[in-house]
Design goal:
Blueprint lengths: L4 H5 L3 H15 L4 E2 L21 E5 L2 E5 L6 E6 L5 E4 L5 E6 L2 E6 L4 E8 L3 E7 L2 E6 L4 E5 L14 E3 L8 E3 L5 E6 L4 E7 L5 E5 L6 E6 L3 E6 L1 E7 L2 E6 L5 E2 L3 E2 L6 E4 L14 E6 L4 E6 L9 E3 L5 E4 L4 E5 L6 E6 L17 E4 L2 E6 L4 E6 L5 E6 L7 E3 L5
Parallel strand pairs: 1-33
Antiparallel strand pairs: 2-3, 2-34, 3-4, 5-6, 6-7, 7-8, 9-10, 10-11, 11-12, 13-14, 14-15, 15-16, 17-18, 18-19, 19-20, 22-23, 23-24, 24-25, 26-27, 27-28, 28-29, 30-31, 31-32, 32-33
Length: about 400
Amino acid sequence: MNKSIRSRVVTGTALALAMSAVLTACGGGDDASSDAKAVKETPGAKPATEVEDPLVATFDGGLYILDGESLELSGTIELPGFNRVNPAGDDDHVIVSTDSGFRVLDAAEQKLTDITYEGAKPGHVVRHAGKTVLFTDGTGEVNVLDPADLVGGKKPGGRTYTSAEAHHGVAIELSNGELLSTLGTEEKRTGALVLDKDGKEIKRNEKCPGVHGEAAAKGEAVAVGCEDGVLIYKDGEFTKVDAPDDYGRIGNQAGSDASPVLLGDYKTDPDAELERPTRISLIDTETAKLRLVDLGTSYSFRSLGRGPHGEALVLGTNGALHVIDPETGRTEKEIPVVDAWQEPLDWQQPRPALFVRDHTAYVSEPGERRLHAVDIETGEKLTSVTLPKGTNELSGVAAGH
């Protein structure tokens, strides 16, 4: 079980009182300030202490590794280029997408391992049913691994699959061994197919133009986004859920094992240089119904998350974390976290990002070089830190030690 900040607050009376003082200080706007400690990557070397529940944030030129409770900056790894980060699926590792492929970071020990999956344009990293799936856009290659096999620093064996043509895609392996992977080319993406555990194609649906992103809901219903709704795969069958608009793109989704309802974005202008939507989509995978909810504020593709009980979370450009009941679409609370912001035109440019683990929402504020931890249920800001540089992407290990 993840040692979340929230769970530690309630472990005892003395600790609760101590934390109360800390929370009061944080609520008053006091920040902890962190100085970077460069991590020298010596093969086989082990840090004096491992980082607890580490977070990883990218910045221009490298990675910051932070303690998941205090947000103290434990170390810095230099890594040039535009890098992306995702949980690897275990307590220690994070997958880093670099210019040359996927690399595995041992965040707990603050070092890049020798495990790499080379290939141009490394894309989506998906965790589901105990497996982690990597999709390399430049080659169309899919790699499936068991994150438990990352221990020891050796590249794990696992299933591989290569798409008929390279494209910006995504894949997910289900608990029964079926592999769902997108279909497309560099110019056009059309849908998804499903392979059985032996690699034989068993299902295909090409009625999902512009297919992008994926999410899994309660009952192992998996959806991929389309330019006119979503495509759901459940119990061996595809179901298309149409958007209410001719062009209703749902390109980014967030799912939860605690809810049959998926959270998605929603865009309606195919000609926009950058559309800043104010509506989100809630897709019920049991009824195949889609609901649109206007938040009254825009958001970005790094704004979507799910809470421990299936809550739909959206970080708005008004600076608040919106906590939404996925069943009703009602906003249960708005938690002020950062200053108001605007999504930049270039998707690679920094903007506030949301990462959720257990009961804690971590929110970055690049313009102020800050990072915040918020208790989702109470709405209290647990702690904040100021970093040497503004960050871009934010992630961490999937669970606590």
